[in-house]
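<tokenise_the_fold>
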Amino acid sequence: MDKKIIKLFLRFAIAIGFLSAVADRLGMFWSKEAFVWGNWESFLNYTKVINPWLPDSLISIAGITATAAEIIFAVFLIIGFKTELFAKLSGFLLLMFGLSMTFSTGIKGALDFSVFTASAAAFALSLMKDKYLELDSLFQKIEK
């Protein structure tokens, strides 16, 4: 398989994974049977479970921050803006999520939801320098 297609697949797979999780916590797009959280309150309750050290007053801020990061990272990965940077940031976000899951509820959930696999995929994407269907390639042409 061509490296360009693999890079495109990684960009879209990571981005769509983020957007699917955001849609779930907002109760959008998926059927009720497919929801993990299904609403913002359930998502915040889970945020508290995997961040037991975080004061209750900061749980909402943590949830909003994670959700905003997932939306921003997803959009930038889809359009190919600063792909290496946002892939690396995605890798760290997913790694932090996986470690939080592991230390609070055990490793099984992080493994079952392939959080570490997604993190590794994002880090691998961050190392792929060739541009393909990315906004970054337009900026490279303008700079030359």
